[in-house]
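User: Structure tokens for this complex, please. No commentary.
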Amino acid sequence: MLTVARIAELRAVLQGWRREGARIAFVPTMGNLHAGHMSLLAAARFRAERVVASVFVNPLQFGPNEDFDRYPRTPVEDAQLLQEARCDLLFLPTVDEMYPEGRDQATRVLVRELSETLCGAVRPGHFEGVATVVAKLFGIVQPDVAVFGEKDFQQFTIIQRMTQDLSIPVEVVGAATVRATDGLALSSRNRYLSSEERAVAPVVHAALAEAVRRIDTGDDNWSAIEHAGHTTLTDAGLRPDYFAVRDAHTLATPSAQSRDLVVLAAARMGRTRLIDNLRVTRR
Ligand code: PAF
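Assistant:
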């Protein structure tokens, strides 16, 4: 696996691969890789001859009181895992390489509405930071296909929409959430959990699964389902930001026509913020 830190170096390598006719898949990450990321790499490997991954903790998507400084950075372990996943090229830029004019000066990409609800309502500017860095990474790598985890379902929806709105010629693919055996969705931030918190954390998945069960039986009282989920999380000692049933395409409250739904939750536990979701098709 090649590792490059400069955009110009990356472009030179990719040019050679494109001349050989290789299809290029891209997996953007913030590092601290785990089995969830490995499933993204496997999906990428399946879809292309060459796989590029990036590791970049993007300051634009962190609020002033969020965990940018303490976000886990494990470059040696990440490189080892990417090598094992048969990644061809690791792009490891610095903040200066990505935002040479300074992060406050950078051109921003904003996907309206989709960015303002759910996590966007409690993390102002977060999705603008995500859309901006992903648009920039797409411009740098120009992949044929890019793979994102469906655990961050709102992020995935926003990136799909941005790609469509800006006519970026990349196929955006979602990969299913990878879970621990007790249901907890894998996340780099799970390492912030104490052992007591880790034991309780699967309640998020359990509450979502119960909501899906209700919808499956024909229940369409969204506010009652949301209230029940909220209560389950609060009773377990979590502080929910939201527990919401939404249309999976618009992220709005389901209309009478909505069939493809998603139940999403975000809740704080100690200093950790857990997010998760489950899809469900309404009969
Ligand atoms: O999901 C992530 O790890 C990040 O939000 C992403 C897509 C790599 C952008 O920084």
